[in-house]
Amino acid sequence: MKIGVLTGGGDCPGLNAVIRAVVRKLIQNEHEIIGIREGWKGLLDKNFENLTLNSISGILHRGGTILGTSRTNIYKIKDGEETVKKNLDESGIDALVAIGGEDTLGIAAKLYKAGVKIVGVPKTIDNDLYATDFTFGFDTAVNIATEAIDRLHTTAEAHNRVIVVEVMGRHAGWIAVYSGMAGGADIILIPEKPFNIDEVCETLKKRHDRGKNFSIVVVSEGAKLQTDDATDKDGSFILSSMKTDAFGHVRLGGIGNVLADEIEKRTGFETRATVLGHIQRGGSPTAFDRVLATRFGVYAADLVEEEKWGYMAALKGKDIVAVSLEEAVGQIKTVDLSLLEVASTFFG
Ligand code: F6P
């Protein structure tokens, strides 16, 4: 068969490890592998390259993606689906391996329903993709954020400051909870539990009253403020920009600075904010992510061999299993509040 491979959405350490695994496994059975450049955009533009043993050599440890990526949504483009199907036919591509998060795999699920032979691999540093225990990229992001928190601890302590660390996490606070617990954060704020600034300041004051002159607050970019409406369980975002992407997501970020200003104003403690941003997505994947990405890639290649279209590789416990794309993209995997409860033992 002639198999197309693409990476879509935000990049994520481990993408190259998946590409390498898919190509190495499928080439063993004489399949031809076509790299599709920049996600779904490459299928609209017919921007392809042959993937060979040589072209995927030496990429296991490299961050980013050798194929490039984009947030192109073919369903927001006139005749997008028809163009993709026509381009697949004209190029003789029989099937696709789509590596991406909820948005990319959401398109994959729709294309599968429209008759395209497709399998998926789950990717996102946010770890919020449903139907898999972990996505690759998350462990790397957590390690980067934990190292940053360790470093911020020493400077916060030296200056008697509060430091607010803003980490990624659009709908779910996985990076904040894991890095916050690993880094010994004094408060962790996540989208799953809207917060009250007065309560945050009270917790910090109590900590400082017991003789601690510095604090670390870890906040997800998507953390929300409690609103005055007691029935509103969702809270409201703090945003520095109202821009949206092709999937309608607002560009998050800005909560760290707003929170730091409020904390300083209300407590009198000198406060600074550090926004980790895309540093969390850059550079080499951890060993854990290289192994997970490799297992996902080999499994996805097996799904292709078995012609098990419409499925995605997923981690359940210690095993890699197949789950339907439809199930995977139906909802978001949010942090279990009992985990935040454990983390809160160390707050204040
Ligand atoms: O989807 C992963 C993610 O890193 C989110 O955590 C973040 O909100 C978003 O991507 C940032 O997107 P962009 O790279 O388009 O700024």
Assign the structural class, choosing from mainly alpha, mainly beta, alpha/beta, alpha+beta, or little secondary structure: alpha/beta
Helix content: 25-40%
Strand percent estimate: 15-25%
Secondary-structure element order, N to C = EHEHEHEHEHEHEHEEEHEHEEHH
What is the CATH topology of the largest domain?
A: Rossmann fold
End-to-end Cα distance: 59 Å
Count of domain modules: 2
Radius of gyration, in Å, reads 22 Å
* Bound ions, cofactors and other small molecules, one mention each: 6-O-phosphono-beta-D-fructofuranose
What does this structure look like?
The structure is a single chain. Helices cover 38% and strands 18% of the residues. The chain is α/β, with parallel strands linked by helices and 348 residues long. It folds into two domains: 2-136 and 285-328, Rossmann fold (3-Layer(aba) Sandwich), CATH 3.40.50.450; 138-282, Rossmann fold (3-Layer(aba) Sandwich). The strands form three sheets. It has a seven-stranded mixed beta sheet with strand order 3-2-1-4-5-12-13, with helices on both faces. Strands 7-8-6-11 form a four-stranded parallel beta sheet, with helices on both faces. It has a two-stranded antiparallel ribbon with strand order 9-10. Strand 12 (311-316) and strand 13 (319-324) form a beta hairpin. Bound molecules: 6-O-phosphono-beta-D-fructofuranose. Residues 10, 101, 124-126, 168-170, 221, 252, 281 line the site of 6-O-phosphono-beta-D-fructofuranose (F6P).
